[in-house]
Design a protein that fits this description.
The complex is a heterodimer of chains A (about 130) and B (about 130). Chain A has four helices and five strands, in the order αββααβαββ. In chain A, the strands form two sheets. In chain A, strands 1-2-3 form a three-stranded mixed β-sheet, covered by helices on one side. By secondary structure, chain B is of the alpha+beta class. Chain B is globular, with a radius of gyration of 14 Å. The chains are: A alpha+beta (about 130), B alpha+beta (about 130). At the A-B interface, helix 4 and strand 4 of A face strand 1, strand 2, strand 3, strand 4 and helix 1 of B.
Chain lengths: ~130, ~130
């Protein structure tokens, strides 16, 4: 996958609230436009109209990256979990891994405490911190 | 349920980590999270805990509290966590918002950019819930 197409996925992911998204992989004998197809996962029917509206903002950039009109295929949450569970988990983990790694590179030792944590036993009914 | 992520720093050794706590409320509700199930009123019953640093006496330098229905589907919860930093268009500290079907509270004194720290805490919850 070339850099321009990958960069567009990063932009699209932010627009659609971090849902997994990918360019579809062409298959032999496939329909015309498969290579210009964007697959959006975890998008239920009631959300798709709003997502299409948001994606209009980057339609030109998507078409330039794809080399023509872009086909958008939505997968509902149910179907995403049923058919693409491994991909969804991997995609969501990749999505959050950057933030986890970026935060870990920052020193925390000099951060003022917001609270003090509290050791809890299973079944506890209190918060694990007390305000400092 | 309440899921809490706390970034903690040991007062003596200065070691740090993110501890995760999962509580269940044992009841469901329609619509917005009711006031009586917000963390200070009723965090629920602690059912799971994932510690990077043993709890008790550490400084809490950032936290994320997520209240969601006990019966929320894993795919919905996971996507909500991955989407959090995108859905909160302006992240502040401290902040508390209703974000259907969840209630979210976030606070930090670290030097990590707010959106990245929010993503890191939400991401660590997601990793623990999926067994990583």
């Amino acid at each position: 996958m070339n850099d321009v197409r990958e960069q567009q996925l990063v932009a699209v992911r932010a627009i659609i609230d971090g849902r997994p998204v990918r360019w579809s992989s062409p298959q032999p004998g496939d329909y015309d436009g498969r290579d210009r197809t964007l697959e959006v996962f975890n998008a239920d029917a009631g959300e798709q109209r709003d997502l299409i509206r948001r994606l209009r903002a980057v339609r030109t950039e998507l078409e330039n990256a794809a080399g023509g009109p872009v086909v958008i295929v939505f997968h509902t949450r149910k179907e995403s979990a049923r058919l693409y569970a491994d991909y969804i988990e991997q995609a969501l983990r990749s999505e959050i891994a950057r933030d986890v790694a970026a935060a870990e590179s920052t020193p925390f030792e000099d951060s003022p405490p917001l609270a003090t944590d509290v050791g809890l036993r299973p079944g506890a009914r209190s918060l694990p911190r007390r305000v400092a | 349920m309440l899921i809490t992520a706390q970034r903690v720093v040991a007062a003596a050794s200065r070691r740090h980590g993110i501890n995760i706590y999962q509580y269940l409320h044992g009841r469901s509700w329609p619509g917005r999270v009711p006031d009586e199930l917000l963390p200070e009123r009723n965090p629920g019953e602690l059912v799971h805990e994932w510690d990077q640093l043993p709890g008790g006496g550490n400084h809490v330098v950032s936290f994320l509290d997520v209240v969601a229905p006990d019966e929320i589907a894993p795919v919905d919860l996971h996507q909500s966590l991955a989407s959090l930093k995108y859905r909160l268009s302006s992240v502040m500290s401290p902040m508390a918002v209703y974000l259907d079907p969840c209630w979210i509270r976030f606070g930090t004194t670290t030097r990590v950019p707010l959106q990245i720290e929010l993503g890191a805490l939400a991401g660590t919850i997601l990793l623990r819930l999926t067994g990583h």
